[in-house]
Amino acid sequence: MKIYNYIKQIIEEKGAAYLILLDPDKLSIDKAKAFLQHCEKTGVDGFLIGGSLMMSGNFESLIEQVKINTSLPAVIFPGSIDQVSSLADAILFLSVVSGRNADHLIGRHVIASPMIKRAGIEPISTAYILIESGITTTAVYMSGSMPLPRNKPEIAAATALAAEYLGMKLIYLEAGSGADQTVPDEMITAVTKTCTVPVMVGGGIRTPMVARKKVESGANIIVTGNYFEDENNWDMLKEFANAVHFKNPIEV
Ligand code: 1GP
């Protein structure tokens, strides 16, 4: 099954999908196996793999660890055009539609497309919408674009709708990794009421309660990264997964 269809099926069955972002610079290969297996056991639906910088060179090894240790999909969340690999199942083909930087709207894509075709992985066309979140996040800085004002849900909704009309299959409302403030609930509601494609929300989500609030506001996919970079928090994975999977929580 295509990964996009798998995600839509999870949304249908469980209410919303829960993805974990793996940053190769933050998760060491020797800890990966235990973490990944724990994620699968506690109900995580898949992994996003990528980072804004690639200091460690662990990008492909981490994808490999996902494939070896779990049956869950490995989806590249590219921080740059170097992050394309045939080892993954799919790649978020991100266009930073909140910005007006042509390079991040279409420029890099021209270079990356033949690489993705050669890799034979599924591109999932994604409208990447950066939302102002209290600090200058890495995503904002690296994209060289302004984030969308957090008190303007109507701009977010119109931006997402334009992306859907352009044929994009997924909307990603992004506060940025480690954000002080998450994407506002009213903004999530405005976007999900306007669009028909799945809406993913991430950045700064640190409690199951906040994750659930995002889902209740309309989010179809929740992403967390930062919080589980601390091993002491791994015990909370089940609570997060169950908060997201409101239709179908699991007993572990
Ligand atoms: C970042 O939305 C993701 O791209 C996850 O954010 O690391 O803050 O959970 P956090």
Average residue-wise pLDDT: 96
User: What small molecules does the structure contain?
Assistant: SN-glycerol-1-phosphate
Count of DSSP H/I helices: 9
Shape: globular
Report the sheet with the most strands, covering strand number, pairing sense and barrel closure. 8 strands, parallel, barrel
Structural classification: alpha/beta
Helix residue percentage: 25-40%
SSE string, helix = H, strand = E?
Answer: HEHEHEEHEHHEHEHEH
Strand content: 15-25%
Side-by-side strand order of the widest sheet: 1-2-3-4-5-6-7-8
Instruction: Give the distance, in angstroms, between the N- and C-terminal Cα atoms.
Output: 27 Å
Low-pLDDT runs of 5+ residues are none
Radius of gyration: 17 Å
The beta-strand count equals: 8
